[in-house]
Design a protein that fits this description.
The chain is of the alpha+beta class and 290 residues long. It has ten helices and six strands, in the order αααααααααβαβββββ. The chain is globular, with a radius of gyration of 23 Å.
Length: 290
């Protein structure tokens, strides 16, 4: 081989090594940003890392970061890519399952959790997450079996669920699984005044689970997730609240309308009553996948 060819090959190998080093450094810096709560900055670094070298660790990391920002469609894409790099990537299977659940793809979520269990039959987290979906779908027997498996494999929080399976309590009328929103309201005051709050009730998966599910399913005029923060509570009378005294959660919501204009509104939501929730006028929602 001629000297020039050898030198060129050496330069190429050195360049590849440098790119790999750069990718690793960017990934590590991104992980530090994510741990510090600077998730958007972390994603910028992960993007740069992927440009240098696209592989499992950075796709898994960026998928988790997207999930933290509630950008679940992007998270699903990254976890899928991570699994393509590493077929037994059980953490990516769990991550994608959780993201799919947030996108109302319940069968897809079950499939992912089942795949993680196939890789690691002792993975308590996979059993627990699959049980939550089974419970939401009304399959109590499968849910209880998975809660028991999660507890048997060391997941302590599953203990209360196992106890509930053994000694089921009466289900209050405001406890309903929230799987999807039933269209868009026509009343402009729906959810935007304290006298007409959105009644999401409580979930079998947890007291405030339906509230967070509602906000995850809500989409703006650009079909994007909305940004929100709790700004207070108001009194609310309900037969399902202790001594009849419940509350309304007051949320400040930032979103974009159908013309891509930035807007802000206030939503009023209560967990103490249930009435099949809709999206407020001007919003949309994720539709459950079959």
């Amino acid at each position: 081989m001629k000297l020039k060819t050898l030198l060129t090959a050496g330069i190429c190998i050195a360049s590849l090594h440098t790119f790999a080093q750069d990718a690793k450094s960017l990934l590590d810096e991104g992980l530090k940003k994510a741990q510090a709560g600077q998730v958007s900055q972390a994603i910028t670094l992960f993007n740069q890392s992927i440009a240098a070298k696209d592989d499992y660790p950075v796709r898994q990391s960026r998928g988790m970061a997207y999930s933290l920002l509630r950008q679940y469609e992007n998270a699903v894409e990254d976890f899928t890519k991570a699994i393509s790099f590493k077929a037994d990537a059980k953490k990516s299977m769990i991550g994608r399952g959780v993201a799919r659940k947030k996108l109302a793809d319940y069968q897809g979520a079950i499939s992912d959790f089942s795949a993680a269990i196939k890789v690691d039959p002792k993975m308590a987290e996979a059993y627990y997450n699959r049980a939550l979906v089974y419970e939401l779908l009304g399959n109590t027997e499968k849910a209880c079996n998975d809660y028991k498996a999660a507890l048997a494999n060391g997941l302590k929080p599953a203990e209360l669920k196992v106890e509930s399976c053994a000694n089921p309590l009466p289900v209050p009328a405001n406890r309903k699984p929230l799987l999807q929103l039933s269209g868009v309201a026509t009343d402009p005051k729906y959810g935007t005044t304290k006298n007409n709050p959105i009644k999401v009730g409580t979930s079998p998966a947890g007291e405030y689970e339906n509230l967070s599910t509602y906000m995850d399913l809500l989409r703006d005029g650009q079909n994007k997730t909305v940004e929100y923060k709790k700004t207070g509570t108001l009194p609310y009378a309900s037969n399902y609240a202790p001594n009849g005294k419940g509350t309304i959660e007051v949320l400040e919501v930032n979103y974009r309308d159908s013309k891509n204009v930035a807007k802000k509104t206030t939503l009023y939501i209560t967990i103490f009553d249930f009435e099949t929730p809709k999206a407020p006028l001007g919003f949309a929602s994720v539709k459950a996948q079959k």
